[in-house]
Specification:
Elements: H1 11-32, H2 52-58, H3 62-65, E1 84-87, H4 89-92, H5 99-114, E2 118-122, H6 127-135, E3 140-142, H7 155-160
Parallel strand pairs: 1-2, 2-3
Length: 165
């Protein structure tokens, strides 16, 4: 007698229903929290969810804020007293090799530019890293790809050469 495939019947559909019900209960729970502001941003920094706590603390109703950029929360006076942001070499090291490092660098560049900050990446040690940073819109990069460490008296000669781009 040939082996028959198992009849799962409604099990997959029921599992999906249970998952959907669970997600809905979680959504309602988060929306009902009043003591803490809980909201999500999409990858470009726009508000995509808003709970009662966020409404109480920030003063915006969901219909007013969903779809707005998070920078609406910060006036010019409240922003960091900075004009640039530096990306640590530990993230630049993984560019093009580590998906998470690459995503973090890309998102930090985008976030910094959204906030009007110039971005400096530390740790560009290979041409591929420098090129990828440039393609991501990074404003400046530094490290051994451009030059080894130099004594102060040798720096003017570096700037007069054609090696910097």
């Amino acid at each position: 007698m040939p082996m028959q495939p198992p009849d799962f019947g409604e099990a997959p559909r029921r599992s999906q229903e249970i998952l959907s019900e669970s997600e809905e209960r979680f959504r309602l729970l988060v929306e009902g929290v009043k003591d803490y502001a809980i909201f999500m941003l999409d990858v470009e920094g726009y508000v995509s969810t808003w709970n009662l706590g966020a409404q109480r603390i920030k003063g915006y109703e969901a219909k007013e804020i969903i779809g707005e950029h998070f920078s609406i929360f910060y006036t010019a006076e409240e922003r960091l007293p900075a004009d640039s942001l530096k990306i640590d070499r530990s993230f630049v090291k993984g560019l093009g090799e580590d998906v998470e490092d690459t995503a973090i660098v890309h998102m930090v560049i985008e976030l910094a530019h959204t906030l009007g900050l110039e971005v400096i990446a530390e740790g560009a040690e290979a041409e591929e890293q420098a090129q990828q940073l440039k393609e991501m819109g990074c404003d400046m990069a530094q490290d051994f790809y451009f030059s080894r460490s130099l004594p102060p008296e040798e720096i003017p000669a570096l700037f007069s050469s054609d090696t910097l781009t």
